[in-house]
């Protein structure tokens, strides 16, 4: 309701007031509604309720939903002679908290999504395996979306060896705790994820913004690295299974998939550089 219902409600109220008792073009009602959305976003940032990057990602969806709210508000606004129409905005405002509370009772979980990325490494498969298990610190500076606050990988270490060992993949916002579930030497390293850090540091005018969607919404469930030889080189695949609770999935899913692909790219490219460089020794695992 917050991501879908609130933009519709704001645009409805804006268009209703703009069209109250008169016939205005839809384009005017809509663009005034968009201004209302921008003012709402400014209020959210100033009150430290969310960060700028998240609001920018949500803005195209809000503009699309605003078409519905603006169209409905324009129609009802110009038909304000009827008593029930006059109190329509009040009824919507009063019903909104109840709809949010009803949504909170829903127990159906989000779908499990998976993202797979690969890289070709020109190094012996034993060498690649060693780097995969625990890669050294990534010294390349953060670039692209990572400069906007998205969490990015820094290094990985492991305690123990084989199934039951615990791998720690450190990100800019904290560490993933990854108990090993499959250890097929030189072929497959699979793990569960029992603890996840926040997916990003909010980009804001304030130093620390703890938006609700940073906790318990985008969760990594498990992952794996798969290695196999092809044409004398090693193909290294990284896969992450995760859930994303933000709706609609058709909008937020591709965005989160892209972010995870970029995280994979940073890790796999680093593994490739280390494995192909004979000057950097790695432990025999």
Question: What are the key terms here?
Answer:
285 residues, alpha+beta, 7 strands
How does this model look, in words?
Helix content is 42%, strand content 22%. By secondary structure, it is α+β, with helices and mostly antiparallel strands. α1 crosses α3 (52-78), α1 (5-18) packs antiparallel against α5 (88-104) and α6 (125-133) packs across α7.
Helix content: 40-55%
Coarse structural class: alpha+beta
Q: List how many beta strands DSSP finds.
A: 7
Distance between the termini: 49 Å
Radius of gyration: 24 Å
**Arrangement of strands in the largest sheet:** 1-7-6-5-4-3-2
Report the sheet-strand fraction. 15-25%
N-to-C SSE series? HHHHHEHEEEEEEH
Strand count, sense and barrel status of the largest sheet are: 7 strands, antiparallel
State the low-pLDDT regions, or none. Answer: none
Shape: elongated
Number of helices: 7
Mean pLDDT over all positions = 87
Topology record:
Blueprint: H1 5-18, H2 26-46, H3 52-78, H4 83-86, H5 88-104, E1 112-121, H6 125-133, E2 153-159, E3 166-171, E4 174-184, E5 188-192, E6 218-230, E7 233-244, H7 249-276
Antiparallel strand pairs: 1-7, 2-3, 3-4, 4-5, 5-6, 6-7
Short description:
The chain has helices at residues 5-18, 26-46, 52-78, 83-86, 88-104, 125-133, 249-276, and strands at residues 112-121, 153-159, 166-171, 174-184, 188-192, 218-230, 233-244. It is α+β, with helices and mostly antiparallel strands and 285 residues long.
